[in-house]
Inverse folding.
């Protein structure tokens, strides 16, 4: 169930998504409120699960992770034990940035970040050693056009 947000909550979330390292004073100034109420709102947003974590966004290329693959997986396995092992395997692999279960012809899509094609093949070989997969298609991203962790914050009609 979605949490009800007012205009101040949305401004706070927008400020935090832009730069979570800002001081509380700076956030309060940006949203037009005083420090204590802003702190209380942030605390409530954390408790409600709206704010899950504070993190840093790293540049993958600066770390030598120049290849981004989207991996399409089809499986003929649908029993719970296989799925648990598969999901555990994905969660343990640091190369997997995202994993989604899909509707349609493809069962899963992974976003995998590695240094190069050889590193992707190492990942692929390790994956198929862990779990049985019917079909894998790897698509190399030639250019990242947009990447963000910022979510669009829903607006209320009465604002």
């Amino acid at each position: 169930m979605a949490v009800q947000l007012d205009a101040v909550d949305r401004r706070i979330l927008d400020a935090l998504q832009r730069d979570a390292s800002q001081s509380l004073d700076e956030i309060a100034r940006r949203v037009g409120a005083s420090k204590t109420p802003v702190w209380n709102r942030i605390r409530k947003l954390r408790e409600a699960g709206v704010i899950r974590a504070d993190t840093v966004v790293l540049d993958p290329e600066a770390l030598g992770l120049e290849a981004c693959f989207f991996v399409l997986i089809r499986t003929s396995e649908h029993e719970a034990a296989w799925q648990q092992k598969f999901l555990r395997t994905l969660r343990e692999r640091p190369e997997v940035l995202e994993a989604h279960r899909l509707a349609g012809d493809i069962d899963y899509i992974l976003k995998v970040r590695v240094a190069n094609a050889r590193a992707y093949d190492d990942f692929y070989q390790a994956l198929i050693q862990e779990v049985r997969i019917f079909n894998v298609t790897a698509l190399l991203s030639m250019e990242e056009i947009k990447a963000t962790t910022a979510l669009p914050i829903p607006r209320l009609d009465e604002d």
In short: Strands lie at 67-74, 96-101, 108-114, 135-140.
